[in-house]
């Protein structure tokens, strides 16, 4: 049965020592399966994240006629069918809770010769999809939707044309959906970003032989004849490492090394922000793993202080804001966040849900349309806090209860398995006084 809540005993945590291996990057795992499926030849994926979100993507491509050979837990062989080799599915394609899957698939499927329908769970079904429907429609796609929400019905057999567009959001998912549709379009597709975002899609396409010009805020793609299969080494997920970076900063005596974490410029904005807050994080053994720059991150406990988060860091840490709220709650002084309106459109309204949760625990939080003001360093007290089924909210609140020895409860933790299925197990291995209740 699924985990429904976590409760903590409120005992002082032991220091986090030694080393820890974090599961593979979710964003890369999604894209490796998608691009491997439409490549020529067999794609090898090492370090694949076997979480609910990425497994949903894997099942979808199996429904589309792609053969996937599963080796060890994190190894896959994807036998690509080429750009035009996907087969019509026999039913709707279920993305579960995976917004990345739904948005990127909408772009990829817009260029197919057959109809498809994308569905998702209750949370995904209220997340905004108009942001991809509009640009894809401009390219010639036909996507039927009720009020810009899932389910999405994508009409096949459409003739797509490349466009020159600046999306209204600084979003790697929107950019990627447009680029994937561009693989099937006539003429070049140009995406001009408001601010640079994660660049995995365009860099992976470049490595697969696609004609892609990449500048700081400009990507120009020429539709290829084919994509060449690759060997992908998936780095450890920085978003998952972020929980441990903050916990080890807060728990006295900690000296923890996180192994082989992806730290590309467009990925690790939180690293810069935590350092500005005074965190003691060393970047060791930096190397180029082909797809990403990876490093071992050594973090030692230290007293943090509040800052004004640089607005240029926001697109590079959009998934890490819940755990940043925790760091800010435990830091001395005030932390101010601006330019993060996208947080209101994630698995939950992360600005409001984190503000409500921290306020119930004694933190002074004021929210704005695009950010928050968090007064840290106050006395905290335990509470039972709903995570609203948001995996990153649940894990962030868990780290706060553990690090601050609070006998609190985190509710609605079922969706943690969408990104970090090993999280509770790794907490227990680190002697967290955690009691798990199941539905």
- Output the number of helix runs: 12
Secondary structure category = alpha/beta
Q: Low-confidence parts, pLDDT < 50 over ≥5 residues? A: none
- Rg over CA atoms, rounded to whole Å, is 21 Å
Mean pLDDT: 95
Largest sheet: 4 strands, mixed
Distance between the termini: 6 Å
Indicate the overall shape. Answer: globular
Strand order of the largest sheet: 23-24-1-25
Number of DSSP strands?
25
Beta-strand content estimate = 25-35%
Give me a quick take on this structure.
The protein has 439 residues and is an alpha/beta fold. Helix content is 28%, strand content 28%. The strands form seven sheets. It has a four-stranded mixed sheet with strand order 23-24-1-25. Strands 2-17-19-18 form a four-stranded mixed sheet.
Write a structural description.
- Helices cover 28% and strands 28% of the residues.
- It is α/β, with parallel strands linked by helices and 439 residues long.
- The protein has helices at residues 26-37, 52-63, 99-109, 130-138, 172-182, 200-207, 238-250, 269-276, 321-330, 350-360, 391-403, 423-429; strands at residues 3-8, 17-21, 40-46, 67-70, 75-81, 93-94, 116-119, 142-146, 149-155, 160-161, 164-165, 185-186, 189-192, 211-214, 218-222, 231-233, 255-262, 280-288, 293-300, 333-337, 364-368, 371-376, 384-386, 409-411, 434-438.
- The protein has 12 helices and 25 strands.
């Amino acid at each position: 049965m699924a985990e429904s809540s976590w409760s903590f005993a409120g005992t002082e945590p032991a220091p986090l020592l030694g080393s820890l291996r974090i599961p593979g990057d979710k964003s890369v795992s999604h894209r490796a399966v998608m691009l491997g499926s439409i490549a020529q030849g067999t794609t090898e994926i090492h370090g694949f994240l076997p979480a609910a979100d990425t497994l949903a993507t894997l099942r979808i491509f199996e429904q589309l006629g792609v053969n996937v050979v599963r080796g060890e837990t994190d190894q896959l062989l994807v036998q690509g069918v080429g750009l035009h080799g996907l087969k019509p599915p026999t039913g709707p394609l279920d993305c579960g809770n995976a917004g990345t899957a739904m948005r990127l698939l909408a772009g990829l499927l817009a260029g197919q010769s057959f109809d498809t329908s994308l569905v998702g769970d209750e949370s995904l079904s209220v997340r905004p999809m108009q942001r991809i429907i509009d640009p894809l429609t401009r390219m010639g796609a036909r996507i039927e939707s009720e009020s810009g929400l899932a389910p999405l019905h994508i009409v096949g057999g459409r003739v797509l044309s490349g466009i020159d567009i600046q999306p209204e959001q600084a979003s790697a998912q929107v950019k990627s959906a447009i680029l994937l549709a561009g693989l099937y379009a006539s003429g070049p597709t140009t995406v001009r970003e408001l601010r640079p975002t994660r660049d995995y899609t365009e860099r992976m396409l470049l490595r697969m032989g696609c004609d892609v010009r990449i500048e700081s805020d400009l990507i120009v793609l020429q539709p290829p004849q084919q994509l060449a299969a690759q060997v992908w080494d998936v780095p450890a997920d920085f978003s998952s490492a972020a929980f441990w970076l903050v916990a080890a900063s807060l728990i006295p005596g900690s000296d923890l090394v996180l192994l082989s974490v992806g730290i590309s410029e467009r990925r690790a904005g939180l690293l810069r922000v935590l350092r500005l807050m005074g965190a003691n994080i060393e970047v060791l053994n930096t190397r180029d793993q082909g797809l990403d720059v990876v490093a071992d991150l050594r973090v030692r406990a230290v007293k943090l202080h509040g800052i004004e988060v640089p607005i240029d860091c926001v697109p590079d840490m959009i998934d890490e804001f819940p755990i940043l709220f925790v760091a800010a709650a435990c830091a001395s002084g005030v932390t101010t966040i601006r330019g993060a309106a996208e947080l209101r459109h994630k698995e939950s309204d992360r600005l409001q849900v984190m503000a409500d949760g921290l306020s119930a625990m004694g933190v002074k939080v004021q929210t704005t349309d695009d950010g928050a003001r968090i007064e840290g360093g106050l006395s905290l007290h335990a509470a039972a806090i709903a995570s609203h089924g948001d995996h990153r909210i649940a894990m962030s609140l868990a780290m706060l209860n553990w690090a601050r020895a609070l006998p609190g409860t985190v509710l609605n933790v079922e969706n943690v398995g969408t990104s970090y299925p090993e999280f509770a197990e790794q907490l227990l291995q680190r002697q967290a006084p955690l009691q798990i209740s199941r539905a």
